[in-house]
UniProtKB/TrEMBL annotation:
PROSITE patterns: CS. GO terms for molecular function: tubulin binding; ubiquitin protein ligase binding. GO terms for cellular component: nucleus. Residues 96-190 form the CS domain. Residues 46-80 are annotated as: Disordered. Residues 46-73 have a biased composition (Basic and acidic residues). Pfam families: CS (PF04969). It comes from the Eukaryota. This is CS domain-containing protein. InterPro entries: Calcyclin-binding_UBL-bridge, CS_CacyBP, CS_dom, HSP20-like_chaperone.
Length: 290
């Protein structure tokens, strides 16, 4: 099915407006107003699509011009433009980018910076950005003898897939992710589950570090405790008891004890704090949800 361009939608709107001016019945005018409104939305989508395609064309032209300039510079030096290593010469390596990247943000977007040598020589068919509402997967194919992959299974917040784009620089690739909620700062790049937060607290407690707790930390811990299996609850109980005993015996300040007892002085343990579901048998009348 062929895509209708913005020019065709503009013509449709003009014709519909003309028909509306000729109409006499209010019901007919109302119907035409509805069709005109839908046509306006289709026009906006078509204009946006054409703008994105124009940007892609300009980017392809820029990449090709950069490649030709580099090829000419190397030819002037008596050198030959390096080509990707063919499969017949060497096995392609798979490189998974898990460290060494950077990120930043503005009110509108989150920017990811990936370091890849000679990135500006990539052709459009050598890279692909797959974007979902809260995840990204970026692949580079057969570049200097390697395939590259970078992915985030769950971002901290949602993004707008159709507004995301890729920019190639000499030794860097920038991924622009358009925020769904404009003007709001992301506290983290990746989404942190309750277990992730708990593990961070445990590591901090082992190092004797202080943690600045978010306002909803206690509710998150309560949620995790109530939805955990018996073994995890037992581990949490033991960790809390050790922290409480250390504090009672004049030991160092413990973030887990501070969190568990926050606003609830005198509570003997996590099971009492979170509803008494640490180790008992769950009968048919138990209200605890699994």
């Amino acid at each position: 099915m062929a895509t209708i361009g913005s020019a065709a939608h503009r013509s449709d709107i003009v014709e519909l407006e003309r028909l509306k001016n000729l109409a006499e019945r209010d019901s007919v005018k109302a119907l035409l107003d509805t069709v005109i409104a839908k046509s306006q939305k289709l026009l906006e989508r078509a204009e946006d699509s054409e703008k994105q395609e124009e940007l892609k064309t300009q980017e392809r032209q820029r990449i090709e011009e950069a490649r030709k300039r580099r090829e000419a510079e190397m030819a002037a030096q008596g050198k030959v433009m390096p080509q990707p290593i063919g499969r017949e010469k060497a096995k392609i390596q798979n490189v998974y980018i898990t460290t060494g990247y950077g990120w930043d943000q503005s009110d509108m977007s989150v920017m990811l910076y990936l370091t890849i040598k000679d990135a500006d020589t990539l052709t459009e068919d050598q890279y692909k950005l797959d974007v979902q509402a809260q995840s990204i997967n970026f692949d580079v194919y057969n570049h200097n003898g390697a395939n590259y992959n970078f992915k985030i299974s769950k971002l901290a917040k949602e993004i707008i897939p159709e507004k995301c784009r890729v920019k190639l620089k000499k030794a860097q690739i920038i991924l622009f992710l358009r925020k769904k909620e404009q003007g709001k700062q992301w506290p983290e790049l990746r989404y942190k589950s309750t277990r992730d937060v708990y593990n961070e607290l445990v590591r901090a407690e082992e190092k004797g570090e202080l943690i600045q707790f978010p306002d909803d930390m206690q509710s998150k811990m309560k949620e995790m405790f109530e939805n955990s299996d018996p073994e995890t609850r037992r581990m949490m109980e033991e960790t809390y008891k050790q922290a409480r005993d250390m504090k009672a015996n004049g030991g160092k300040y413990d973030p887990l004890a501070a969190m568990a007892g926050m606003g609830m002085p005198g509570m003997p343990g996590l099971s009492d704090m979170f509803g008494g579901h640490s180790s008992h048998t769950h009968g048919p009348n138990c209200s605890h949800q699994h």
